[in-house]
């Protein structure tokens, strides 16, 4: 589905005021998938973490947010990426319900990033839909400045909204490009903004 800032504002306002508008454009869905992620060690070498291959897990039935090609240079950048993936898993769990777990969401998101999840769950509930399908996240250009971080993420998407009879309620968008903004909370990171910057192959 096409996600625009105007549509996001419309949906968030609708969720906050309790209005119902079946024609309102919903926030973005997105699933997940993981292959391997690489992390540079202190000596500059790159290590790979064991994780399931796309062939083993990436499909249109679950709702898993999986790591793909992860480009980081140190443990702190990896912590930012881990927080990004944790946010998306909570997000996809909520869309699969559809139901928001306030404790889980509060642990990984603040501000607009949390509002997007609440607004989209409201949309799904109103339209009797659920989101199914995995996502695989490539992450690059992780930048940390003090208590703020930013990254870019290309997502291979298998997720779609489905009706109660299992039929897709939207065409599949195979790729998304996101910019993620995070803030440090105590000794952890939380996602504060998710900006859609494209939907072409990346």
Short description:
The chain is an alpha/beta fold. It has five helices and ten strands; from the N terminus they run αβββαβαααββββββ.
Just give the CATH class.
Alpha Beta
The tally of strands reads 10
What is the N-to-C order of secondary-structure elements (H for helix, E for strand)? Answer: HEEEHEHHHEEEEEE
Task: Give the helix proportion (percent range).
Answer: 25-40%
Query: Major sheet, described briefly?
Result: 8 strands, mixed
Number of domains: 1
Which word captures the global form?
A: globular
The structural class is alpha/beta
Q: How far apart, in Å, are the first and last alpha carbons? A: 17 Å
Residue stretches low in confidence (pLDDT < 50, at least 5 long) are 1-56
Describe the structure.
The chain is of the alpha/beta class and 202 residues long. It has one domain (5-198): Roll (Nuclear Transport Factor 2, Chain: A), CATH 3.10.450. 31% of the residues lie in helices and 33% in strands. The chain has 5 helices and 10 strands. Strands 1, 2, 3, 4, 6, 7, 9 and 10 form an 8-stranded mixed sheet that branches. The protein has a two-stranded antiparallel ribbon with strand order 5-8.
């Amino acid at each position: 589905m096409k996600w625009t800032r105007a549509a996001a504002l419309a949906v968030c306002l609708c969720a906050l005021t309790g209005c119902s508008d079946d024609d309102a454009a919903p926030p973005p869905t997105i699933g997940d998938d993981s292959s391997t992620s690489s992390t540079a060690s202190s000596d500059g070498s790159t290590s790979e973490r064991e994780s399931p291959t796309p062939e083993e897990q990436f499909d249109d039935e679950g709702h898993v947010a999986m790591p793909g090609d992860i480009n980081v240079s140190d443990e702190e950048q990896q912590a930012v990426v881990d927080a990004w993936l944790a946010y998306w898993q909570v997000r996809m769990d909520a869309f699969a319900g559809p139901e928001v777990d306030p404790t889980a969401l509060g642990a990984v998101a603040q501000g607009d990033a949390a509002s997007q999840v609440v607004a989209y769950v409201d949309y799904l509930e109103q339209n009797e839909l659920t989101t199914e399908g995995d996502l695989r996240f490539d992450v690059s250009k992780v930048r940390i400045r003090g208590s703020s971080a930013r990254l870019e993420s290309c997502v291979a998407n298998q997720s779609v909204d489905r009706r109660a009879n299992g039929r897709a309620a939207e065409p599949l968008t195979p790729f998304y490009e996101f910019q993620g903004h995070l803030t440090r909370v105590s000794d952890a990171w939380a996602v504060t903004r998710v900006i859609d910057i494209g939907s072409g192959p990346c």
